[in-house]
Task: structure prediction
Amino acid sequence: MVFLEQERLFREAGWQVVPFAMHHPRNLPTPWAEHFVDEIEFGHAYSPWQKLRRVPKVVFSIEARRKLRGLLDVVKADVCHLHNIYHHISPSILPVLRQRGIPTVLTLHDLKLACPAYKMLTHDGICERCKENQLFHVITHRCIKGSLALSALAYVEGRLHRALDSYGANVDRFVVPSRFYMNKLTEWGLPAEKLVHVPNFVDVDAFRPRQRVGRPFLYFGRLGLEKGLATLVRAAAMARVPLHIAGTGPEEERLRDIAEQSRAEVVFLGHLTGAPLKAAIAGARATVLPSEWYENAPMSVLESYASGVPVLGAAIGGIGELIRENETGATFSSGSVEDLAARLRWLADMPDRRVTEMGQCARAWVEREFTAPQYRARLSQLYAELGVSGFKDVRCERKAVPQAAATD
Result:
């Protein structure tokens, strides 16, 4: 999770980091947990009364405002860096930060500030119907999990915070990991002068370049419809190449059926993390990202590169920015079984020596552009530009950096 990695990075620099988040059973221990907001988990089987009580919090949380004020009464914050505050914490906290005079930065991991449904994706594919403030489409197309109630709630939330100008009036800078998202959000009306491109980073030292090129192709991540995995399985069958899939999600059973029907050589590895995931990446010929929605800046690309593994990625969203054609991998037309199959066959037939060279090129690019120290330096410069003294030399100063995040 980017939030946790960023927190670790700041602490290693000697900064005091004070988290503000939602209570959750999987939270890490922290002395600041008494200030966290109560859990809201949409997958839980709440009673009708419990659901009704949580609705106002999703739109505008009085509890989050109160608890943040309590935290800021005991912590003198120099800057606040926010991640994924929607729904679980809500944008209600933003005016509190403005009133306290705390420079506020929000990292945009998705398209929520433009699209109430986060992804600009609905039942018939990529969707930009809500552009020019036409948010009612989120209801008519039931864009949130196919639910009329949840979609209506997203509509109300979007309308309210646009009317209040919650983000524009209270956030000083929006950190955007991909240039594609910067351009798309500007198209939808966000002020370009507040958007700052800061690429994601990977802990390069945590990955070792592989010693030998593997045979299977690998996808790792969530098994969701937007990930284009049905296209990948069919393409693997057409190209007659082995495919490993690491992860779980709502599409798993459907993908197993497609693999069986198409006689694709697919192995489902289940959920992998840590050393087993790194071993799966290192053992692949290449990793594949067949997305069919506007991806931002997928960490899976950087993690593959850090392992010396090239990437085949769909030419959609910010994926293309992270692939140097025929140097670190290759792109293909999103949603095209034929185009992806051709790329799989191309890389399968490529000599191992050439695949190794591509992986080495990818690793070298990560080491130049996407390391933790570079990420920290970019954020330090941003904080300094907002008038926060002491961030120019991150090795010497201990600054208070509250971070807000919610578990989705």
